[in-house]
Design brief:
heterodimer; A: about 600 residues; alpha+beta; five-stranded mixed β-sheet; 20 helices; elongated; B: about 400 residues; mainly alpha; 15 helices; about 70% helix
Chain lengths: ~600, ~400
């Protein structure tokens, strides 16, 4: 070992320089973390310490046109579990919880799915917990420090099934929806509109979620509530006022009761306001709030009457005789017929076309009738010949132009497009050029054949008959001046003739038993032939008062057998709306 | 007999560090929910008094006496380490190890702390016996063996942290004995190969550097070949060694490279420690008021991660004060080494300095993820009787060496 003083001095010097470098770099490292990156770490330490608890915002209240509540919020309770370490520890925690409250394996799986998607957010376990469950959990609170029990607004529809057809329902956002761009910013456990107005106006009805903070320790136990100035209150969404007349809607729901099935749409023909929209049988949207019970869901799915299928805007049915008016409109537009004109072959219960005999609905026959009378009594034989006179391509063009293959554009997400051939080429395409004949004209002209319409579209088309050939887009929530569209143009005299014929249907025609005292009702029955054993679909579309219409009603009864039955229901609806009474009591016999 | 002048600055710095440290142990116990840590500061204070008594006693002896005791103590320590392997138990971040000497369920202490001092003394004795500094690897076999035997016993516990300290002491003391730096590099080359072997490119580059060094230093041919073979061998066995590491050790090394790979488990410690230090900011959250510590996010806040409490509660200012005290201590001890009356004293001083230095670098570095987590305590701060005692025994030895040393340099 070299002990020369110079050597030792050199080593000492080098050693101290080395120490200086080491401590200098340590100090620099701390300077970086504590001074330069301080903000980042401060934030992380607060995220550690503070547990953010989202506060759901109340959804916007939905009112009818008179300020009556269609959808509101009631106080409910939700149970969430704060950020677990991983899904295994969450699963065992839920297993433990399952010993205290009922928790199915399916529910546990759902909680785990929510957790995996958003592990840093409290995971919803029960979004709408009963009071019993809450009281059990409150007692056991010490054993489950991670549980967050909070009061949350819960969607409620005071009229339940009566409004389900247009209001829809709310439910938890699912995995597929979370992936959609329109639901950006939504988190698992969030409630969204799943149908109807709730879905259509989701963005407006949603409100803004708030947040509060709990101070927690490393084991997730709440130490104290963090300073309130950090909290952000939830912002309730503004309410929405609809055109619905809740009183009328309830009346319709009562009218249908449990026995009838079908769809109803009531419009104001002047501005397209949807006064009522009902589908029977209805489902109870309140049962969907906070997760639908499995047995209720099963009963809905197994019901042959398909309660979840909206018969007013999704169901497509042959419009039958209600469509004859548009055959007439097409003929009138081309000046092919006048109201007092008779056809060459009088009605003896049918019409021979080529080697086929086409029956009129009335085997007895209607005799030699003019157009007005043919509409009143719904004479098929007359319309067969009128259709042949128009010719297929003009007939189809007329049907297309009145909107037979369009959506009305109502503000409901479920509306389906009515079906109608786009032109002659349609038949070539579907059947092959030589495999069809002009016999299709006969079917089309009486509203059968390749023609199926929604109840809503029929109401929309009749709104044009009720006014001057124009129809406003049906709207549940009016946001601008009515968007009007001209469906057809005929002369004022012809318009008058159509109105007279439709009035005649009720005063002296197929709907004669549906008259109202003091108000002139106009409309058209229809009976759509059905091959099934349950019987034909019954239609009535009409409006009142005939001279200055304020309401158009389309009623379709699935397997309702006869249009006159539908007419009596429509008449009752209109009578209720216009506050007049039917001349005869409603009879349910066909 | 020459009058012994007490090295007051050394005592002052040692006392300041100890009181600062005990204050932090006290704060570490101030959590929202009281734990076993809460009363520990009192026993740490007791250990300080015992340490002071030992330091006083040793201060009353002489360097010659210490030198005379060196060999028996060394043998005693080896026996103790061997016994610990049989009777040992673990604690803290290394609960699965056998670093505590336990008799009848009572933990007597961690012999590794005493072993560090003992190895310093033994190494000093052997190195000071030589006239010239070793200039070839062959001449290093004896000092190497002195370190190697206890090192193996400690690595078997396994206590990676103390193992690193031994290697630090070995190189530090070789440096002080005048071994040329090139030889030190060559000596350390297999270890560097071991680390770099995980990247073939880096290892290849290192091998070229090594080759240049060998040609420049011109060791004996046999030595040169041995070195190269050793480097190749470590490079090859590294993956095998890796497989033999306990999973928690592998994890610690992996997490050191990227704490976020396992944020909830192994990486958790270091992430939370960094958050604690960073969130402390320039002036800290206030003594005993660290939220990371209070709410239990900071693990091992009274032992391995006590410096994170300093960072969180006293901020950058507190960190600078603590680091300055350590710097002052180590500079002072280096000064003692340079003034030592003989080479034994100088080597002992520098060895003890290196021992503390490695602890500080590894422990403080670990809190900021600059070093892997090795469960190594911070001198004077981390809770632990053995280490407090060992540190003050070291101060006692240094006081004696300083007192007998040449001149005064206060």
């Amino acid at each position: 070992m070299s002990n020369h003083p110079n050597d030792i001095a050199r080593r000492t010097r080098l050693g101290i320089i080395g120490l200086g470098l080491i401590f200098g770099s340590l100090a620099i490292a701390f300077f970086r973390a504590q001074v330069l990156d301080h903000d980042r770490y401060k934030l992380q330490s607060e995220e550690n310490r503070l547990r953010a608890i989202p506060l759901p915002a109340p959804r916007g209240i939905i009112y009818d046109r008179n300020g009556e509540v269609i959808a509101e919020n009631l106080p409910g309770y939700s149970v969430s579990i704060a950020s677990a370490k991983n899904s295994d520890s969450l699963r065992s925690e839920l297993k433990r919880l399952g010993e205290v409250i009922p928790l199915t394996e399916r529910q546990i799986e759902a909680v785990l799915r929510r957790y995996r998607r958003e592990p840093h957010r409290p995971t919803v376990v029960i979004s709408d917990a009963s009071f019993d469950i809450i009281s059990i959990l409150e007692e056991q609170r010490i054993n489950f420090p991670q549980l967050i029990i909070q009061s949350v607004p819960k969607r409620f529809y005071p009229d339940g099934p009566a409004v389900s057809a247009f209001v829809g329902y709310t439910g938890e956002i699912n995995e597929d929806e979370l992936n959609l761009p329109q639901y950006e910013g939504y988190k698992p456990g969030h409630s969204i509109g799943k149908g109807g107005l709730e879905k259509q106006y989701e963005r407006e009805l949603r409100g803004r979620e708030g947040v509060r903070y709990d101070e927690v320790d490393a084991r997730g136990r709440v130490v104290r509530r963090a300073s309130p100035e950090m909290a952000v209150d939830p912002l309730a969404a503004p309410s929405i006022k609809t055109n619905i007349d809740l009183d009328l809607q309830r009346f319709i729901a009562n009218l249908f009761g449990d026995s009838l099935q079908g769809g109803v749409v009531a419009l104001d023909p002047n501005d397209g306001a949807v006064l009522a929209l009902y589908s029977a049988p209805a489902y109870d949207p309140n049962r969907f709030t906070g997760g639908i019970p499995a047995n209720y869901w099963d009963s809905l799915m197994s019901d042959k009457r398909r309660p979840l299928f909206n018969k007013a805007i999704q169901g497509l049915y042959p419009p039958a005789s209600t469509y004859k008016l548009f055959t007439a409109v097409t003929a009138l537009q081309h000046n092919l017929v006048t109201f007092d004109e008779k056809m060459t072959v009088p009605c003896h219960g049918g019409y021979q076309f080529g080697n086929r005999y086409f029956r009129c609905w009335d085997r007895k026959g209607h005799g030699n009738v003019d157009l007005t009378r043919a509409i009143e009594v719904s004479c098929d034989t007359y319309f067969y010949q009128l259709g042949l006179r128009i010719g297929l391509s003009r007939l189809l063009a007329g049907g297309v132009s009145v909107g037979s293959r369009k959506k009305t554009g109502i503000d409901l997400p479920e509306e389906r497009t009515s079906k109608y051939p786009y032109g002659v080429e349609y038949y070539n395409e579907v059947y092959g050029a030589r495999n069809w004949s002009n016999a299709v004209i006969l079917n089309l002209s009486i509203g059968q054949g390749e023609n199926s319409q929604t109840v809503l579209n029929m109401a929309h088309m009749y709104a044009a008959l009720a006014t001057d050939g124009q129809a406003a887009r049906p709207t549940l929530v009016s946001r601008s001046t009515p968007v009007k569209e001209r469906l057809f143009k005929v002369s004022p005299e012809q318009m008058e003739g159509l109105k007279r014929s439709l009035t005649g249907v009720v005063s002296a025609g197929t709907a004669a038993r549906s008259r109202l005292t003091g108000v002139v009702l106009a409309g058209k029955t229809g009976t759509a032939q059905q091959s099934g054993p349950e019987g034909d679909h019954a239609w009535f579309v009409g409006y009142a008062p005939a001279e200055r219409p304020t309401i158009v009603v389309a009623v379709m009864l699935e397997f309702g057998l006869s249009g006159s039955r539908a007419a009596r229901i429509a008449s009752a609806i209109i009578g209720h709306y216009l506050k007049v009474t039917p001349t005869s009591a409603i009879q349910t016999r066909g | 007999m020459k009058k012994i002048i007490l090295d007051y600055p050394l005592i002052a710095v040692g006392l300041l560090l100890s009181l600062f440290g005990i204050g932090m142990v006290y704060s570490a116990g101030q959590t929202d929910i009281s734990t076993f840590v809460t009363p520990l500061w009192k026993s740490q204070l007791t250990w300080l008094f015992i340490g002071l008594l030992c330091a006083y006693a040793i201060g009353k002896s002489s360097v010659r006496l210490i030198e005379w005791f060196t060999t028996p103590v060394y043998i005693f320590v080896l026996v103790l380490l061997a016994v610990t392997l049989v009777l040992g138990s673990g604690a803290g971040t290394a609960a699965g190890t056998k670093s505590w000497l336990t008799v009848g369920g009572i933990r007597l202490g961690q012999p590794a702390e005493l072993a560090k001092i003992s190895v310093v003394l033994m190494l000093a004795k052997v190195l000071s016996g030589r006239k010239e500094a070793p200039t070839s690897l062959l001449e290093l076999w004896k000092p190497a063996l002195i370190v190697f035997v206890p090192w193996v016993l400690i690595m078997l516990q396994p206590d990676l942290g103390s193992g690193i300290v031994f290697i630090g002491i070995f190189f530090g003391m070789l440096y002080w004995s005048g071994v040329p730096w090139t030889l030190l590099v060559l000596l350390g080359s297999p270890v560097i190969s071991l680390i770099l072997s995980f990247s073939t490119g880096l290892w290849g580059a290192w091998f070229l550097v090594l080759l240049a060094l060998v040609l420049w230093y011109k060791p004996y041919l046999l030595e040169g070949i041995f070195l190269m073979v050793a480097n190749v061998a470590t490079g090859v066995i590294a993956p095998i060694l890796w497989d033999r590491l306990a999973p928690y050790q592998q994890n610690r090394l992996l997490v050191f490279l990227d704490p976020s790979i396992d944020p909830r488990a192994s990486g958790y410690h270091v992430i939370q420690s960094k958050i604690a230090i960073g969130s402390g900011g320039p002036i800290g959250k206030g003594f005993t008021l660290g939220t990371q510590k209070r709410s239990g996010f900071l693990p091992e806040q009274h032992t391995d991660f006590i410096f994170a409490v300093v960072g969180e509660e006293l901020g950058f200012i507190g960190v600078v004060v603590a680091l300055s005290l350590f710097f002052a201590l180590l500079v002072r001890v280096t000064g003692i080494a340079s003034r030592a009356n003989d080479s034994f004293g100088g080597l002992v001083s520098f060895g003890l300095m290196t021992c503390w230095l490695v602890h500080v670098i590894v422990n403080v570095g670990m809190t900021l993820n600059l070093m892997p987590i090795t469960g190594i305590p911070l001198p004077f701060f981390s809770y632990g009787g053995s280490f407090m005692l060992a540190s003050w025994i070291s101060i006692g030895i240094l006081l004696r060496i300083s007192g007998e040393g040449r001149g005064r340099n206060i």
